[in-house]
Design goal:
heterodimer, A: mainly alpha, 2 strands, B: about 280 residues, two-stranded antiparallel sheet, two-stranded antiparallel ribbon, about 5% strand
Chain lengths: ~140, ~280
């Protein structure tokens, strides 16, 4: 991973996104999955078609990552697992930046190939979730 | 070659970054090629800069960003009025280095009116909701999930009011960032994120202006949410300098693909409504 030198404290957006990531991971770690409010998130797409949607299983994936069960997270939803890991990494990196780390990861150049690859990965994730959780 | 690292500004995404060499290179934030000139002959292409949030001004600033000169309430009122009736002008004037101010505007506008709306909703519609709850319970048509939702939204006590007042601004702050992150991810995927996260955030933050309608019990939230989604599209078009189609796609793709929770809430509300109708 390529890093760039960043002067000063993290930007307000980095802090805001870290707050969101920390809130999501905390909620996934502390709230029980089978009781409200998390149990209220029923998927209407699954209700209508019997197939899970792209993000079905993300709550379970976040909970599994928060409880340090990466394999269970991947099983629930690979996209959710990647997002949860990304959230954890961003929170950790922002804390290090606040402690004086002068480096930030450089964003990759967003080429057409990279965007198509990301779309293909999303489709593959959906296929995986549908095959595992379909009727 | 420079003697030490200097801050340079990307002319495309307007973010700043640190570099130790001059000449042609790629912006580490947006990846677009740029030229870092010698410091002594700094050209507008990638000028050394300073500032807590990196990106420089592109317009003169929205009224909210000039609240020191206009006055707090005048600036807030003008910003809301522009967002509602002249959104293009507002988003064109938005500065991308004023993220904190923009977050403050969103939290103040959506948060305060949402608090008022929740309290009025409990006060005016509580009895009606209670009747619906009892009717559904008597027919045995009430699912435990729906009962829990209706009971939670029907609580009306000083403790609930305090909890609503304290939790709502935090919820708004988190939701604005979450919305901006999801919208920006969609914009990146569709190749529409031309000027970095700060531009998406500015669009999402000022698009919260119609959420003043949250103060109207009942239908206010629905109208405000739709207006906010449309304004976010207008905002993306102006702040990222992209086409209307790309902006609309970036805003609505996440709602179609990812936001199950919103669909679930709509489905639950529709189901509750249909179950409550006489057979």
């Amino acid at each position: 991973m390529r890093c760039i030198v960043r002067v000063g404290a993290p930007s307000v957006h980095a802090l805001g996104l870290a707050a969101v990531a920390a809130a999501l991971l905390s909620a996934a770690a502390l709230l029980p999955l089978e009781a409200p409010p998390l149990a209220l998130f029923a998927c209407p797409f699954r209700g209508a078609t019997g197939f899970p949607c792209l993000s079905c299983g993300c709550t379970h994936a976040f909970a599994a990552i928060a409880h340090l069960h990466p394999l269970a997270a991947l099983e629930a939803n690979p996209l959710g697992a990647a997002l949860a890991l990304g959230c954890a990494a961003h929170v950790l990196w922002t804390c290090l930046r606040l402690c004086g780390l002068p480096y930030a990861p450089a964003a990759p150049r967003l080429t057409r190939r990279l965007r198509f690859s990301a779309a293909a990965l999303l489709a593959a994730n959906w296929a995986f979730v549908a095959l595992r959780g379909g009727p | 070659m420079l003697e030490g690292a200097v801050l340079a500004r990307c002319p495309n995404c307007r973010n700043t970054f640190s570099t130790e060499r001059t000449g042609p290179q790629d912006c580490p934030v947006c990846g677009k090629p740029l030229v870092v000139p010698e410091v002594a002959t700094a050209a507008p292409a990638a000028a050394p800069t300073s500032g807590p949030e990196g990106a420089p001004a592109t317009g003169e600033g929205t009224p909210w960003e000039r609240r020191d000169e206009l006055g707090f309430w005048t600036a807030w009122g003008e910003t809301v009025a522009q967002a509602l009736f002249e959104p293009g002008k507002l988003f064109r004037a938005a500065r991308l280095d004023r993220g904190a101010a923009q977050a403050g505007f969103a939290v103040l506008t959506a948060g305060s009116f949402w608090i008022v709306g929740q309290l009025l909703d409990r006060f005016f519609l509580g009895a009606q909701r209670e009747r619906l709850l009892n009717a559904l319970r008597a027919r045995g048509q009430l699912s435990p999930v729906l009962e829990k939702i209706l009971q939670t939204t029907n609580q009306n006590s000083p403790r609930t009011a305090l909890l609503v007042t304290l939790a709502t601004p935090v919820a708004v702050f988190l939701l604005v960032y979450l919305s901006a992150a999801v919208t920006h991810a969609a914009a990146l995927l569709l190749g529409q994120a031309k000027r970095g996260f700060a531009a998406t955030f500015a669009a999402c933050a000022y698009a919260c202006a119609p959420l003043v309608l949250l103060a109207i019990p009942g239908c206010g939230g629905f109208a405000g949410a739709i207006w906010t989604a449309v304004l976010t599209g207008v905002g993306l078009k102006e702040t990222h300098r992209i086409g209307a189609g790309g902006a609309a796609a970036a805003v609505f793709a996440p709602y179609l693909l990812l936001c199950c929770a919103i669909c679930a809430a709509t489905a639950l509300a529709t189901s509750a409504f249909l179950r409550g109708m006489p057979q």
